[in-house]
Amino acid sequence: MNETPQLHPALLPSGLRDVLPPEAELEARSVAAIMDCFAAHGYERVDPPLLEFEDSLFSGGGAATADQAFRLMDPESQRMMALRADTTPQIARLATTRLADSPRPLRLAYAGQCLRVRGSHLQPERQIAQAGIELIGNDTAEADAEIILTAVEALAAIGLSNLSVDLTIPRLVPELLEGVALEQKNKLAHALDRKDAAAVAELGDAPLLLQLLHATGPAERGVPALLAIALSGEAKAQVLRLAATVAAIRRVKPHLPLTVDPVEFRGYQYHTGVCMTLFAPGRQAELGRGGRYICGESEPATGITLYPDTITRLAPPPALRQRLYLPHGTPAGTAASCRAQGFATIAGLAPLAEPNVEALHLGCSHIFLDGTITPLG
Hints:
Layout: H1 23-40, E1 44-45, E2 51-53, H2 54-57, E3 71-73, E4 80-83, H3 88-96, E5 106-115, E6 127-136, H4 141-157, E7 164-168, H5 172-176, H6 182-193, H7 197-202, H8 207-214, E8 217-218, H9 219-227, H10 233-252, E9 258-260, E10 271-279, E11 286-295, E12 299-306, H11 308-314, E13 323-326, H12 332-340, E14 344-347, H13 355-361, E15 366-369, E16 372-375
Parallel strand pairs: 1-5, 7-9, 13-14, 13-15
Antiparallel strand pairs: 2-4, 3-4, 5-6, 6-12, 7-10, 8-9, 10-11, 11-12, 15-16
Helix pairs in contact: 1-4, 1-11, 4-10, 9-10
């Protein structure tokens, strides 16, 4: 009879991992610094649950996350529940229910874990940390700029000051492809996604799409090029909004690297206006992404989600507390005084002939001997 092979107890499902010292501490400190910056800009923290009923979690913009959510049956209510794959739809639920009567614009912040059925090429992890802000009830370029500038400041607070921001308007291309046959539309979308101007030209009369493609690049060149394109209606309004957002950012941070990509629209399922992605130059990983969307039935909103897992790997590591070994019998008052000086105290639990050896064994950098804090060689 064949027996099921015994799995090693440390083996985890694909896309999941244990976060060990010191990375767990570094990530916690990064999140704390990010949230402190958000709070300083007036964003109040909320903490929605990890699980919700499907009906509420997948309503409105949350429908775009349904294919990424793990589901299970609630044994009490016998209703289906789902684990959140993204926090933003939950913030929208709070804004339209429990906080419906709160003054607008509503500024909310959050931090927590999400679980996804599948990872992506750039982000293969299935459990990811998120820390973000949402500005609900205001539809202006200044609101879009505030979200971007606050996120940039939060990343600078943890040592990531060399950033670039990519701006896009993901509803622009679908607007221009309205009425195009499905097969042709899919081919054009694929060519635009690859930034393949030759393929776009071969697929038919698409001068507007080629002009949009050629406008991709630094905002200083891209925005004037976009404004010169003969667009009308909603397409023109979206370009004007992008230009106004760039101008609002420039008034505060004139030297922040900004790029525009008017043909990018994949991955922005529920977004309706100016969107943004934050990068560290020279790295493929996204530090955060977000954009404008509709909260509830019709309330304007914008927000951004930062990814602490990725941020922690790229940011300069903050100085952790140095570990100080306190031999057995060290008075509690002395230990408290050492912690007040910034040390993490490791108490000896039994008298030892060679406390220095034990201190090194436990990863301590200092030891308290003869009334003095002494570095270990």
